[in-house]
Amino acid sequence: MKVKKIIGQIHLWLGLASGLVVFILGITGAIYAFSDEIKELIYKDRLQVSVPDGAVRLPLSQLKLIAEEAIGKDRKISRAELSQSPGRTYMFRAMKLNRKAFGYWNYYQYYDKVYLNPYTGQVVFKEDAKREFFTVVLALHMNLLLGNNVGHFVVRWSVVCFVILLISGIVLWWPKNWKPKQLKKSFKVKWNAKFKRLNYDLHNVLGFYSFLALMVIALTGLMWSFELTTENKAKVLSDTTQVSEIMPNDLILGQALKASPRTAYFLYNFPSANSGTVNVSAYQSEMRLYDRVQYKFDRYSGKLLQKGDAFGQLSLGAKVIAMNYDLHTGSVLGLGGKLLTFLAGLIAAGLPVTGFLIWWRRGKQLKGVNKILP
User: Fold this and answer.
1) In the chain, helix, strand, coil percent, each to 5?
2) Which of 183, 181, 163, 164 has its CA nearest to residue 173?
3) Among 343, 336, 338, which Cα is nearest to 328's?
4) Do residues 337 and 33 touch, judged by C-beta distance below 8 A?
5) Dist CA 306 CA 255 (whole Å)
6) Is the pLDDT assigned to residue 371 strictly greater than 70?
7) CA contacts within 13 A on the Cβ side of 5
8) How confident is the model at residue 244 (pLDDT cuts 50, 70, 90)?
9) CB of 282 within 8 A of CB of 293?
10) Which residues, in sequence order, are CB contacts of 330 under 8 Å at separation 6+?
11) Which of 22-26, 180-184, 207-211 has the lowest mean pLDDT?
12) Which of 57, 154, 218, 271 is the most exposed place for a label (fewest CB within 10 A)?
């Protein structure tokens, strides 16, 4: 019992210390769970175009020039998202960060997107992505709008606290005995009870049922935060002796498409350094990001320098790390997994609230007892 009392104190004070951050992470995680599906509905006009009969997509090099003119020559395009589905726009992105800055608006010096009709080159939509709703939600989720250094530090250690809270919560939840009457209290919310009992059940019972999902979400979040990855650290560089003003983007994209003909979409990363490579990720699924193949090309000659392993070729540990984002968002299980993540996020946001109310009401009761004692 002494051990359980100590665990209870740890649970209480870690909960009070990290509760507000956990509440924000839970709410924003729940909102972001179906962000892709919501964007398909509300951003339909910028994501889809009609396909003229017999139309073919324009060369990437030509589309990039159009995007550069639309965004402005002073803002360098760093990435393009090239959907291979008919009737989808191409998206070009220009983004510059100040990683040492404090606050959201200082962290992004600029973040612009332009959507092009790949068949005609028409500019479909220009977006100040820094002000886009889901960009703000994601930043709130990742760094509380405080910037990279301060925000990530606070979020990282709040999630560490949350992992400890989950483990200590299970210990505190564990029934003293496994008789039917006790088990009913531990596994069932008494919805018709008074507020005090209902609040306790919501904290205790829902915390138990969401334990596994929340632990997976928390641990996968920490994997990002502590930058655990199996990415090949060997430096692959472009041959600067072949320096040219023109990158063979059409040649590179053609090679990537030939190597991965069933790709759903490509993320095409343009290098910033003279010796940098063109990095192309070929995603084989719209929803599951772990199913991808990564390529590195020489920016001057278009020569393939490195090809990553397909998901099926990875070791078990590498597969788990590759699935990190999909496990975190629930997309590894499709729409059902996203729904699970959505509900887990709401429960995570509710746990600090119900926990605080339990502590606050107990404090009021103790004050009342002290007043009547001699």
Assistant:
1) 55, 15, 30
2) 183
3) 338
4) no
5) 12
6) no
7) 2
8) confident
9) yes
10) 33, 337, 338, 339, 340, 341, 342
11) 180-184
12) 154
